[in-house]
Amino acid sequence: MRNKEEQMRTISIVSLMAACILVPVTARAEVKTKEVQYKDGDTPLQGFVAWDDAVKGKRPGVLVIHEWWGHNEHARDQAIRLAKSGYVGFALDMYGKGRVATHPKDAQAMAAEANRDPKVVKARFDAALAQVKKDSHVDPKKIGVVGYCMGGNIALAMAGAGEDLDAVATFHAGVQNIPELKKGKVKPRILVNTGADDPMAPPAKVEALKKAITDAGARIEVISYPGAKHAFTNPEADKAGMPALGYSADADRKSWENSMKMFKEVFGS
Q1: pLDDT at 29
Q2: Residues with Cβ within 8 Å of residue 36, at least 6 apart in sequence
């Protein structure tokens, strides 16, 4: 009797092992990244592109416009997050290759220099747009933008300038110096993620922006996150030594989820 039980147990183990061998292995998502060297005229710029290698076919491309700190790890991390969400993320460069600030005074000076001439801003945005459109993984007819702080302002300005975009999501944009918007010129759907405690985006300014974009005939949604300060998506924000800045894991997570929901509605994927 014991020999028969042992024999049956052996058969079961062998059968289980065989079944395991025959189970097909499913391809796992793998995010690939690479640096891209490009130029605006004579100015060398450095981009960072991220995509999911397991996704087949072309997909929407999404530009990431960095904070006033420049093309740093925060910007690159957002490109990777986009890749994980099924898009091609392209972190662009508004300052020039290697120009990154770590002190608020340096960041302020670099931001002022980069934004002094609207034509330069548009030229650098267009240079990055051209790069992402020619990426082999990107459907050039489906383009989005995410912008952070200064980058959020630039994203809104580019939408106001009539850039051919489908969706724009901003995070803690200062909503300052947005150009006058002409009816019918603003093409993308827009989501503004703002902190309720952000002194750089007072409610009156945010409402004025919402009204201006609505009057221009575009669709805009504003979501305010309670307790969130300026730069609420950046884990390094509290280290800057500025009371107006602060990271909020809750606002970071929710604003990303809301933005990806909007992108999915626009792009259908």
Answers
A1: 64
A2: 46, 47, 48, 49, 90, 131
CA gap 210, 218 in Å, rounded: 10
More confident residue, 49 or 11: 49
**Which of 142, 140, 139, 174 is CA-nearest to residue 65?**
174
Q: Tokens at residue 55, please?
A: 């996704």
pTM for the model stands at 0.88
Q: How big is the CA angle at 40 (ends 35 and 44), to the nearest 5 degrees?
A: 50
Residues of the chain above pLDDT 70, percent: 88
Count CA within 13 A, CB hemisphere, residue 26. 3
Instruction: Give the separation between CA 246 and CA 231, rounded to whole angstroms.
Output: 6
Q: What's the CA gap between 41 and 253, in Å, rounded? A: 38
- Tally: H helices and E strands in the chain: 7, 8
Q: Which of 14-18, 70-74, 205-209, 259-263 has the lowest mean pLDDT?
A: 14-18
Q: Number of C-alpha atoms within 13 angstroms, CB side, residue 97?
A: 13
Radius of gyration of the chain, Cα coordinates, nearest whole angstrom: 23
What mean pLDDT, rounded, does the chain reach? 89
Residues 6+ apart with CB under 8 A from 250: 225, 228
28-267 adopts what CATH topology? Rossmann fold (3.40.50)
3-state SS assignment for residue 18: helix
* pLDDT tier at 181, thresholds 50, 70, 90: confident
